[in-house]
Amino acid sequence: MIGLKLIQENPELVISRLAVKNFDAAVIINEIKTLDETRRETQHKLDGLQNEMNTLSREIGNLFKSGQKEKAEEYKQQTVVIKEEIQKLTQKLEQMLSGRKS
Question: Taking CA atoms, which of 21, 31, 77, 86 is between 20 and 30 Å from 93?
Fold first, then answer.
């Protein structure tokens, strides 16, 4: 079995070793690399948004406790947008992991 780490770190080696077995893997290996990079970027964005959501949620609680309801409501509106983006990225990630194209 060929590991993803090996494909990312040394795709030329993988391609050349598979060529010995009369298997032209250049297109497939490049597609695997591209898909993995896209998955990593999507996961990174998702993690960042989830972190931002957690921070905003804590801040909303603190603002309500301190009586700053207007500011808390502004932050709540921001969380709606973030939740939608999180949902989109989660669906994209699930599609990538299940092998479906969007």
Answer: 77
